[in-house]
Amino acid sequence: MAEQIIYAFFTVIIGVGGCFGYFYGSNWLLDRIFPANANNDSSAVRNLKMQSTIRPWLFLGPALLLLSVYLLFPVIETFWLSFHDRAGDKFVGLANYVWAFNDDQFRLSIFNNILWLAVVPALCTLMGLVIAVLTDRLWWGNLAKSLIFMPLAISFVGASVIWKFVYDYRGEGQDQIGIINAIVTYFGGSPQVWIALPFWNNFFLMAILVWIQTGFATVILAAALRGIPEDTLEAATIDGAGPFKIFFRIMVPQIYGTILVVWTTITVLVLKIFDIVLTMTNSQWDTSVLANLMFDWMFRGGGDFGRGAAIAIVIMVAVLPIMIWNIRQANKEQSGH
Amino acid sequence: MANIKLTNLNKSYGTVHILKDVNLDIKSGEFIVFVGPSGCGKSTLLRAISGLDQVSSGTLEIDDAVVNEVPPSKRGIAMVFQSYALYPHMSVFENIGFALENQGLSRADIKTKVEAVGEMLQLTSYLTRLPKALSGGQRQRVAIGRAIVRGAKVFLFDEPLSNLDAALRVQMRMEIAKLKRDLPKTTMVYVTHDQVEAMTMADRIVVLQAGKVMQVGTPMELYENPNSVFVAGFIGSPKMNFITGVPAEKLKAKTIGVRPEHFEFSDTKTDIAGTLDYTEILGSDSFLYVTTPTGMLTVRQPGRTEFKTGQKLNLKPIAQHVHRFGENEMRLAN
Amino acid sequence: MLNRLKLEPSRILLNLAVIFIIALWTFPTAGLLISSLRDKNDIAASGWWTALSSADRKQVGRMKGSADQVEKDGKFVIFGNLFDGADATSGKVSAFGTKVQTPGANAAGSTVALDAGQSLTVGVDGSYVLTSPTKFTDERGGRVFFVSSQPPRFTLDNYQTVLFSEGIGRSFINSLTVTIPATIIPILIAAFAAYALAWMKLPFRGLLIAIIVGLLVVPLQMSLIPLLKLYNAAGYFMGVPSKTYLGIWLAHTGFGLPFAIYLLRSYIAGLPKDLIESAQIDGANDFKIFRRIVLPLCFPALASFAIFQFLWVWNDLLVAIVFLGSGPDQLVLTGKLNALLGSRGGNWEILTASAFVTIIVPLTVFFSLQRYFVRGLLAGSVKGG
Ligand SMILES: Nc1ncnc2c1ncn2[C@@H]1O[C@H](COP(=O)(O)OP(=O)(O)OP(=O)(O)O)[C@@H](O)[C@H]1O
Ligand SMILES: [Mg+2]
Questions:
Q1: Superfamily for C161-381?
Q2: Do both B162 and B211 map to the same domain?
Q3: How far apart are CA A131 and CA C328, in angstroms?
Q4: Does residue A43 share a domain with residue A115?
Q5: What's chain C's Rg over C-alpha atoms?
Q6: Measured in angstroms, how far is the CA atom of residue B158 from the centroid of ligand 2?
Q7: Which of A50, A311, B40, C22 could staple A294 via S-S, CB 3.0–4.6 A?
Q8: Could you report the predicted ipTM of this complex, rounded to two decimals?
C-alpha cells in the first residue's frame, strides 16, 4: 500500500509539476531571448514589444491546444459523421437529419428538452437567489448553504438511489417504501408509479436536477451578494426603501451579471442532461432527451453513428442562441477595458 | 530631468475623436496642471503620456526622444491614480517596493529605499499593514510613495485628491507642494477639477475643452488675459460675468467679461442697472447677485455690504479690467 | 454582514423558512444515510423513515414440532421462542393469532384455546407455550402469526462490505491520482488563458472568447468515440499504452476548460483596471502581473472552480471507463463500486453505503475551500473606503 501511495504521489507531482514547469519555463525563456533590460534602450523597447506579442500565446497555448484536441476535433468529426451512413463511410447528405425530424422519438426528446430548459434553469436560479439572500443574514447561514450544496457532491449513481427511495412504488396494500407514495397512501390516496406517468414524470426527473444544482446557484450567488458594497444598501435603507425594494432594485441589479452566469451555466448543463434520465428511467415512459437518444444511437443497439452524430449536432445548434447572447454580454463587459 | 513635447497629438476611440491636435511643450521640472470640464479628455491625455493608451497620430517625446512606441515601464514615468490602485493583498512595504523588485534590485537595496520613502511620507509605522487598514490620506501617501521610490523623471497625477475630504485635501495639497520643492528636477503633470489646486500649485495651467488645448499659461496669465470666453469663464471663482448688448457694443465687442471684483457703483443711472436679489456675506467678502436686463451679475465687495435686498444698483465696470471678446468668442486685441 | 436587510419582526419567520428549505433539501439525503445503516432486507421491506421509531411489523413464526414435546402433569407441552425462527426479527410481541388474516387477534400474554383442546400462550418476549391433552403428532410445528414492535435497528454491515471489499483502498488512491492533477492542471491553464483573454493585447480576442464559450455546449458523450480512436492511434503510433493517467488528466482538463475559462475570465476581467495598469507602470511584465496581482486576487474564483471540477472528476464514471483501464492499478472508486454492484446484482445496501463513502472526500474539499468564497480580499483596498 505504501508503495502505491508513493507511486501515486509522484505521478501527481509529475503531472502538476509539468504544468507549472511549462508556464515558468516558457516565460523564463521568453525573458531570456528578448531581455527587457538590454543595455541598449531601443533594443530593450524592441524586445519588450516582442515579448508582449509572443506572451499571450504562451498563456493561451496549452488551453487552445487542449480545446482543439478534446472538443473542437470531436465536433468536426461528429459534424462529418452526421452526413454519413451508420458505418461512417458512405455520404448520405442530409438523410440523417431528415430521419431525425421525422422520428417520433426524436420529436419527443426535443419537446422534453425544451420542457427541461424552461423549468430547471429558472427554478434553480430563483431558489439559489432566495436561499442566498435568506441565509446571508443568518449566523448559521454557512451551515445552511453547505447542506443545500451537499447534493452536488453526490455522484449521479448515489443521487439516483436517493430518488428511488423518494419515488418508489409498491402494489396497493403493501408497505410503501417510497416517501411520496407513503404520504399519498397515508392520506388515503392510491399509490402511483410516479416515474412512469407520461409527461408528468419529466417534472419528477427535473426535481432531481433542481435539487442537485440549486447548491451551485446558491454558492455562486451568495459570493456575489457578499460583494455588494454595504453602503449602497445603507443608502437605500436611508432613502426609505423596504426590504423587497432593496432586493429587487439594489441587490439584483448589482449581481445581474452573476445571475446571468449561473443561469447560462445551468442552461448549458440542462441541454446536455444525460445521467439522470439514464439512471432513473433509461428513457422509458416518454422521458427521453436528446443526449440519451444520441447515446442510444451511438453506443446501444441502434449502432448508427450517422444518426447519433446528427442528434449531437442538433443539440449543439440548439444552444447556439443562448451562447451568442452570452458572448454579446461578455463583449459588452469587455468594452470597459 | 525630463521635458515632454506633444506634437499634433490625436487620439480616437473607434470613430470618436477625443484628443484633437494637441500641441504642448512641458519644460523639465515644471508643474503642469490640466483643467477642463468633465469628459474633455484630461485623463486621456495623461494616459497617452503614460503610455497606457496608444496615441492615434502625432508624436510624443520625453527627454527629446520619441516614445510613441515605448511601453509605460520604459518611459521613466510614475502615475498616481485617483483610486490609488494599491495592491490590496500586499503590505505597504510590498506596495512601495514592487517597482523596485521588478527592476531586479536586491532585497537590501529595496529595504533601504522603501524605508527612506516611508520616512519622508511619515509611513514608517504602517509599513507592514495592508492597504485596507489605512486611512484615505495614508493610502494617498502610499500611492505617492510608490511614485517617488522609483525616482521617476515624470510624475503623472490623475485627480489624486478627489477622494479626500476638504481638510485632508488641503493638507495633502501642501504635501504635494512640498514634494515639488523636494524634487525640483521632476516634471509633474497633474489633472484636477479643483480651481484652488490648479491656481496654487501650477507653474502653468493647460485648459482643455472637447479635446482641444484652449490656452496654456501661468495661473496669473490665464486669470488676467484669458484668450477666450471659455477660459475666462473657467478660471476664477466666482465666475466672470459676461455681458452682451449695449454695454458691449459701446466697447466694440460682442461680449465683454467683467470679474465680480471689477465693478464700481455709481449714483447716476448707468448702462448696467439692476435690482439686488440676494447677498452672500462671507466675512472677508460679500457677493451681491444683481438682476439686470442682460442677466444675473455677480459682484464682489470687500468686507460686509451695506446694500439691502431689493435695492436698485447702478453698476460700472472698471475700464482697464474689462475683457473684450469678438464674434468667435475669442479675445479682441486692446 | 448580519442584519443587512433590516426585517426584525420576521427574524423568527426567516429562520423557520430557512429551516423548512433545508429540511426539504436534506430529507432525501437523510433517507440515503439511514438506509445505508439498515439491514439489507429491511431496506427493501419498509420505508427508511420507519427505521427511526419502533415499528409494528407483521411476522410469522413456526413453532417446534412433535419431536420437542415434553410431557408434564399429564399434558403434552411444546415451548420455545417465536423469534428463534430463522425468518423472524426480534422485537416485542404485542399480539398474535393463528390465522394469517388475523395476526392481531389476541393480546400478548393471553391464552387462546385452539382446536382439539389445545391452548396457546405467547408472551411479550416471544416465548410460547403450546399445551395439548393428547400427544402431538405433526413433525412440523404450527405457524403463529404475530405483530411485533421493532426497536430501531442499525448496522454497519453495509459499510463493512464496501470498505473492506478487495481493492477499494487501491481504487481510492487511484481516484485521488486522477482527481488532484485533473483539478489543478485545468485551473492553471484556464487562469492563464483567462488572463490573456481579459487583459492582454492580442488579435482575434473576441473570436477566441466566442469559440471557447461556444465549446461549453459540446455534449461530453459525443466526443468519447472520436477521442478513443485518437488515443488508440496515438498509443499505437508511439508504442505506449493508450490508457494512461496522463491521458485522463488531459481529457478532464479539456472537458473542464470551457467552463473554467468562462468563469475565470469574467472574474479576472472584473478586477480594477487601475491595479493592472499600475503594475504595468511599475514595470511588471504580464507573467509577473499574473503571478503577483491577478492570481492572489482571483483566489475566490479559483476556489469555486476547483470545487466544481473536483466534484465532477471525482464522481465521474463515464470518462474513467473510456480513458482508463479496469486493472487494479487504474480502476477508480466509482468504477470499483460499479463493479461491486455488478457482481452483486444491484444491491441497494451497497449503493447506499458506497454513495456515502464517495461523498466524504468532495465534502471535505468543499468545506475546506468554502471560506475563500466569502473572503472579501478586494474590500476597502480601492476608492478610499
Ligand atoms: N475606452 C474608451 N472608449 C471610448 N471612449 C472613451 C474611453 N475612455 C474615455 N472615453 C471618452 O473620452 C472622453 C474623455 O474622457 P476622459 O476620461 O479623458 O475625460 P476627463 O477629462 O478625464 O473627465 P473627468 O474630469 O470626468 O475625469 C469622454 O467623453 C469619454 O467618454
Ligand atoms: Mg478623468
A1: MetI-like (1.10.3720.10)
A2: yes
A3: 43
A4: no
A5: 33
A6: 7
A7: A311
A8: 0.81
